């Protein structure tokens, strides 16, 4: 029986991909590296350090560990400064309605994000009241596609994985949900999250009514 929901943050609750893009692009330009929206899309769900490694690989280059950390910190400063513009108007369409509905129906709700800036984003959105448990980039050491962040959320909610549905927009996030034995809802195109149990193009389509209709024997 489904008793809880675990939400990824970036790309599910709010669309930070554009802000991440601007910050990575600025760093890549300074380094003389190629970086475009296709590469940015590959960074969905993966940690900051893993993201730099993807960008390096795309440019057929390598960096010493200390330089890599320095660049990651620089990119993060740009990204964090850009979060100041985010307000409680910046939920993805449908996200706030779904979170509200889950509260009304009494489900347990956790955040399961790879971001170390999740607290800041939740504060900008004024979203803390929707979550019983916050799992972020500081909560576990193995990032997605490892299931650890979702297992952390389930454990804190005192639920088993098979009692939870994970919402994710990243390929690595759906991989993580499946690896942990969770039910999954993918938000985005077939080629990215087609391996989820259920997929919607947008959060606006992902209503509790639709989710219950699909997983009906589990409610
Ligand atoms: C999310 C985003 C990724 C980002 C990661 C780490 O999963 O989708 O693009 O790299 O969080 O975020 P952070 O805010 O810690 O750099
Ligand atoms: Mg995401």
Notable characteristics:
alpha/beta; Rossmann fold; DNA polymerase, domain 1; 2 domains; six-stranded parallel β-sheet; 10 helices; binds 6-O-phosphono-alpha-D-glucopyranose; binds magnesium ion
Would you give an account of this structure?
With 219 residues, this protein is an alpha/beta fold. It is built from ten helices and six strands; from the N terminus they run βαααααβαβαβαβαβα. It has two domains: 4-15 and 89-218, HAD superfamily/HAD-like (Rossmann fold, 3-Layer(aba) Sandwich), CATH 3.40.50.1000; 17-83, Orthogonal Bundle (DNA polymerase, domain 1). A six-stranded parallel beta sheet has the order 3-2-1-4-5-6, with helices on both faces. β4 (164-168), α8 (171-180) and β5 (183-187) form a beta-alpha-beta unit. α1 crosses α4 (65-82) and α3 packs across α4. The longest helix is centred in the middle third of the chain and has 18 residues, at 65-82. The mean pLDDT is 97. Bound molecules: 6-O-phosphono-alpha-D-glucopyranose and magnesium ion. Residues 8, 10-12, 44-45, 169-170, 173 line the site of magnesium ion.
